[in-house]
Amino acid sequence: MRVGSKIALVGGVPILAAGAIALAGWMLLAQEERARGGAVLVADVYHDLATARVVRDQYAAADAQERGAFAERFARLTARAEAGLHRLTGFARIDAQRSRIASVEAALSRYRGQMDAFVRRTQDNDGLIREMAQRADTLIDLTDRARLRQQASNTDLARSLAEKVEALRVARGLVSRLGTLRARIAESAVIAKKVTVSGETRNAAEGTDQAVAPAFGSETQRAQVRFRAASRDLSEAMRADGREADADTLDELTAEVTGPIPGLGGKLDAWIERNLKIETSGQESLHDEVAQLLAYSVEANEIEQATQNIAIGTLKLGPRTAGALLRRDAALAERMLAEGERLGQNAAALPISPLIQAEMIQALDGWRKRLTTTIGGLRRQNEMIVAMDGLAAAMVESAKALNDAFVGDADRFGIFIQRILLTGATGLLLLGALVVIFVAHSILVPLRALQGDMVKLTGNPTGAAVRGTARGDEFGDIARATAVFVSEITRREGALRRAKDQADVALVELRRTQDNLVRAEKLASLGELVAGVAHEINTPLGIALTTGTLMSDEARAFRTSLTAGTLSRSRLNHFVDRVEEGAGLLCTNLTRAADLVQGFKQVAVDRVSDEIRSVALETWLDDLVASLRPMLRKGAHSLERTCPPGLVIDTNPGVLAQIVTNLVANAVVHGFRAGEPGRIVVRVSEFEGGLIRLEVADDGQGIAPQHLDRIFDPFFTTARSAGSTGLGMHIVHNLVTAKLGGRITLVSEPGRGTAVQVDFPASRAGTVTRYAPTALGTP
Amino acid sequence: MSAARRYCAALVAGLLVAADPAAARTFVFCSEGSPESFDPARATTTTTMNVAWQVYDTLVEFAPGTTTIRPALAESWTVSEDGRTYLFALRDGVRFHHNARFIPSRTLNAEDVVFSFTRQLSPGQPLGGTQEFTYFHDLGLAELIEAIDAPDSRHIRFRLREADTTFLANIAQAFGAILSAEYAAALTAAGAADDLARQPIGTGPFAFESYRPDQVLRYRAFSEHWRRVNEPAGPGERPDGLVFAITPNAAVRLTKLRAGECHAMAFPATGDLDAIRADPELTLLALAELNVAYLALNTTRPPFDDVRVRRAVNLAIDRQAIVAGVYGAAGILAQGPVPPGLWAFDPDLPAVPFDRAEAQRLLAEAGLADGFDTELWYPPVSRPYNPDGRRVADMIRADLAQVGIRAELVTRPWNAYRAALYGGMPSLMLYGWTSDNGDPDNFLNVLLGCKAAQPGGANLARWCDPVYERLVEAARRTGDRAQRQQLYRRAQGLVRAAMPWVPLAHTQVHLALRGEVFGFTMDPLGRHLFETVRFRPLPP
C-alpha cells in the first residue's frame, strides 16, 4: 500500500466518520428542526386564531365607527394564521399532520368567509342604524315643530277667546239694559194706570184732586226721567258697540214718547222685544262659541301635551333603541319597535297640523321599517356569531391537536437522534484509532532506512548506492530520485567549469571591442570640432579678405587719380580715412581668427590629451559653447550658460568638454521636435565639500519613461536610422564615473524637457569617490 | 306677551321655511265637517260632494264659477230630435287613480260609465240599492232613464222615457261621477265591496290617500289627470297634495288659517268677516250662492198637516230680525225656495208679513188657541246657508213662544242630524240647500217634489201636491225657458199658499284664503274645487 493511500486512510477514516456522523446528525437535526419549527409555527397559529376570536368579539361589541380597526386586525390575524398554516405544510412530516393542517386551513377559510359576511352585514346594519338615527332626529325636529305650531295656535286661540268673552260681556250689558228699559216702561204703565184710576176717583169724588194730582204727577215725572235715563243708557251702550242705526231708532222711538209712556205692546216695546230676542240669542250663541273655544283650547292643550309626549317618547326611543342594537338585544329592539308603532299611532291620532303629521308618520314608518330590517339583521348576526363561535372552537381545538402532534413528534425525534449519534461516534472513533496505529508503523520503518543512506551519501557521494530503489511505494520513489540526484550533481560540476573558461575569453574580447568603439567615437567628435572651428574662422577671414579687396580697389583708384593729377586734398583725406578704417577692420578680424585658432587648439589638445590641469571654468565654458554654436545653428536653438565667476577647478578638461559636447549634441539630436527651436542651458554651480555640479537642461520633448532605465546602456538609441550609434550617453556615463570620479543623474519629463546633472569633485587630487549611476525619472 | 307671540310666529315661520321649501307643498283646506261617505252617489250635502269633487269627474261638468255645462269625460254628445236619447262620446286615455290594493289595467271606457249609473238605477245589485242613492231617486232619474247601453267601448247611450231638459245638468252632479267598474269588480271579488265608499278610486285631479274621521282627509295630486296632461302648467306652484283639515268650529278654523295651518277656510263666521277683510295676510272671497235656508214643517205630522198652523208659524216668526241678527250683510230675506240669482225667481211673490195677532188667530181657528208643544231641530254646524243654526233656532223659539207654541231645541251631530231629517223624524227642522246644478228644478223638484217626499228623500216637509208636481214635471220636459219660467212661477205660488216651509234666507257665501295661494274660484253651486289652486312662488 502506498503512503498516500495510507495517509488518506488515516486522515480519511476519521473525516469520513465525522462526516457520516455530521451528515446523519445534520439530517436528523434538520428533521427535528422541522418538527420543532412546525411546533413553534403551530403555536403561533394557535395564538393568532385565539386572538382573532377575541378580536371578533370586540368587533361585535364595538361602536360602528370603531369597528373598522377590529375588522382590519381580524383580517391581519387570520391572514397571518393562514400564511402560518401554509408554511406549516412544509414542516409536516407525516400524512396525518398534513391532513390535519388541511382541515384547519379549510376551517379557517370558512371562518374568514363567515367573518366577511358578518362584516358586510354589520356594515349594512350600521348604515341602517345611522339612517334610523337621522329619522329619529327628523322626528324629534318634527314633533318639536308640531309642538311650536300648537303653541302658536293656542296663543291665537286665547286671543280669539278673549275677543269672544268681550263680545259676550257687551251682549250681556245690552240685554240687561234692554231688560231695564222694558222694566221702566212697565213701571210707567203701572203708574199711568194708577193716575188714570186716581183720575177716575177724582172725577168721582171732587176735592181730592188738588191733593192727589201733584203726587201722581210727580211720580209720573219721575218714571219718565227713569225711563229716559234707561233709554239713554241703552242708546249709549249700543253706540259704544258700534250699532249707530239701532241707537238712532231707539232715540227716535224714545223721542216719540212725549206724553204718557205707551206701555207694553207699543211700538217701542216691540222694538225692545225684537232686540232683546236678537241679543239674547246672540248671547246664547256667543256662550256656545266660548264654550266650544274653551273645549277646543282644553283639547288643544291636551294635543300640545300629547305632542310633547310623542317628542319625549321619540327622544327616549332613539337612545334606547341604539343601546339595544349595540347590545344586540333583538328582543328589546323588538319592544322598541312596538313602542315606535304606538308612537306612530299616537301621532296619527293627534289632530295636529296635517302637514307635519304626514311627515312625522312617514319618518316613524321609515324608522320602524329600518328597525325591522335591522332587527332581522341583528338576529342573523347573532346566528352568525354562534356559528362562527362553533367553527372557531373546532378550529382552535384542531390547531391545539396539531400543536400537540408537532411537539410530540419533535420530542420523539430528538431522543432518536441522541442515540444514533452516540453509538455512531463511539464505533467510528475506535476504528479510526486502529487504522492510525497500522499506518504509522508501515511508514516509519522505510523512512528510517532512507535517513541512514542519505547521511552516508553526504560523506561520499559516489561512495555508496541508495537502498530501496526497488520499492514500489513513495519510499522507492524517494530512493530512486536520490540516486538520480547524486549522479546528476557529479555531471554538472564538470560542465560548469568548462563554461567559466569560455566566458573569461569572451570578456577580454569584448573589452577590446569597446575600447575601439570609444576611440572611434572620440575621433568622430574631434571631426565635428574641426568642422565647427573651420566655420567659426571662416567669418573673420572672409571679412578680412573682403576688406583687403576693397582696400586694393581703393588704392588702385587713388593711384589713377594721382597719376591723372586730379587728386584733391579732400580725395586724399578720404583715401587715408578709408585705409585707416580698412587696416583697423583687418586687424580686428585677423586677431579674432587667431584667437579662435588658439582656443580650438586648446580644445583639440584637451580632447586628445588626458591630462589634468587647472581650468578657469567660465572662460573654458565660453570657448566650448562657441565651438558648439555651429551645431545649434541648424535648428536655431539657443544655448545659454551660467557659471559662478572666477571658479577654477582641477580637472580633465578634455573629458569635461566631451561630456558637455555629447550632452548638448544629444539634446540637439533627440531633445527637440523638428522645426521647433529649443533652449539649452548649461549651468555650473559649486557645492560645499568641493563638489561641482554641471547641469545641461533642455526644454524639449523629454524621454519616454520606458526608455529611462536603458538610457546609459551601450548601443541603446531611438534614432538608429538617423545614424546614431547609441554610445553617446554610455560614454558620458563612463567618462563621469571613470574619469571624473563623479555621479550622473538624469531627470526627464515627457513634454517638459530633460536635465542631466553631473556632480564631480573640483579637484582630482586625493581619493576618488565612486558614485553609483542613478537614472531618475518621473513616470 | 306680544313679543313672545311674534317670536313664536317667527320661529314657526322659520321652521316652515327651513323645512325644505323645494319639497312637495301640500294645500290644506280647513273644511267645515266630515263627509258622510266617499261614494259620490250617496252624497246629499255639499260637504260630502266637495270631498267627492276632488276625486271624481263626471261626463259633463259645470265650468267652475258658473252654471254652464262643458265637456268633461265625455268629449262630445248628441241629443236626439225627441230629446229622449243622449249619446256621449268618451274622452280617450283617461286614467284612473291607483291605491295599495288596486292598479288599473286600462283607461276609462263605456263599461265604467254603465256601471256608475246602473248601480244607482237597478236596486238589488251588490253595490247598489234604492235606499242609498237618495239624490238619484229624488231627481226621479230611476224613473226617467229607460236604458243605458254602450254601442262600443267609447260611446254611451242614455235612453229616457221622456224629454228632460235638466238631464245634462243632473248628471253633472256628484252622483254622476264615474267610478271604475274594474275596481268595483275587484273589490266585490275580494269581498270588500263596502270599500268602494271608503277608498275611492276615480279619474279626478286628486287621488284619495287617507281619511281620519273628524280630523283629516288626505289626497295627493294626480299627475296623470286628463286635464292636467293636456293643459299648460301656468304660473304658480301646483300643490302636490291636498288635505282637508276637518274643523267644525269657525273660530278655530280662522285661528288655523291665521297660523298658516291651512291655506283656505270654509264659511268664516259672520262676525269675523270684518276682521278677515282687515287682515293683510288673508283674502276674503264672497259670492251670492244659489241657496236657500228654511224651516221645514213636516206636513205629514199633526199639527203641521193643517195649512193654518203652517201659516201661523210663518206669520209668528220675525224673519227680518233673524236675517239682520244672524246673517247680517251676508243674507237677504227669502220669500220662497228659489234664490233671486236664478232665472226662475219670482220677484212679484208677496212677502209674508210678521203678524203675531194673525198667527194667534189662525191657531185659535185650528183649535190650538192654547198653543202646543213641539221639537225644533237645528243643525249643529255652520252651513253655507246658515252660519249659526242654534241662534236662528233660539230666535224662532222666542217668536213661537209669543204665540203659544212651545218649541224644544234638539240637535244631533251633523251626519246623524242629516240622517234624522232625511228619515223624516222631526216635525220642525232647520235646513237649507245649495243648488247642485243651477237649475230651478234642483230646488223646486228636489226639495218639494213628490218623489223626494218619500222616506230618505230630500223633501223634508214631505209635502206632495199633484198639481205642483205636474207643473214641475212639465217644466222639466220642455226646453223653452219662458214656458218653464211661467210654470215655475205658478209652482212657487202653490208653495206660498201651502207653506210647507218658513223660507228664511239666501246667503252670500264666504271663503277666506291665505295670501300665498291663488287660483281659487268661488262657485255658485257651492263646490270647492282645488284643481286650479296654486302657490305663489316663494320670494327668493
Give an account of the 3D structure.
The complex is a heterodimer of chains A (779) and B (540). With 779 residues, chain A is of the alpha/beta class. Among the domains of chain A are: 142 residues; 169 residues, Histidine kinase-like ATPase, C-terminal domain (Heat Shock Protein 90). Chain A is built from 14 helices and eight strands. In chain A, the strands form two sheets. In chain A, strands 2-4-5-7-6-8 form a six-stranded mixed β-sheet. In chain A, strands 1-3 form a two-stranded antiparallel ribbon. The longest helix of chain A is centred in the N-terminal third of the chain and has 110 residues. Chain A starts with a helix and ends with a strand. Chain B has 540 residues and is α+β, with helices and mostly antiparallel strands. Chain B has two domains: 265 residues, Dipeptide-binding Protein, domain 1; 218 residues, Dipeptide-binding Protein, Domain 3 (Dipeptide-binding Protein, domain 3, Roll), CATH 3.10.105.10. Chain B is built from 18 helices and 20 strands. In chain B, the strands form four sheets. In chain B, strands 1, 8, 9, 10, 11, 12, 13, 14, 15, 16, 17 and 18 form a twelve-stranded mixed β-sheet that branches. In chain B, strands 4-5-7-6 form a four-stranded antiparallel β-sheet. In chain B, strand 6 and strand 7 form a beta hairpin. In chain B, helix 11 runs antiparallel to helix 13 and helix 17 packs antiparallel against helix 18. Chain B starts with a helix and ends in a 5-residue tail after the last strand. Chains A and B meet through helix 3, helix 6 and helix 8 of A and helix 1, strand 10, helix 9, helix 12 and helix 14 of B. Chain A: Its EC number is 2.7.13.3. Chain A: It is an enzyme of class 2 (transferase). Chain A: It comes from Methylobacterium pseudosasicola. Chain A: InterPro entries: HATPase_C_sf, HATPase_dom, His_kinase_dom, HisK_dim/P_dom, HisK_dim/P_sf, Sig_transdc_His_kin-like_C. Chain A: It catalyses: ATP + protein L-histidine = ADP + protein N-phospho-L-histidine. Chain B: Keywords: Signal.
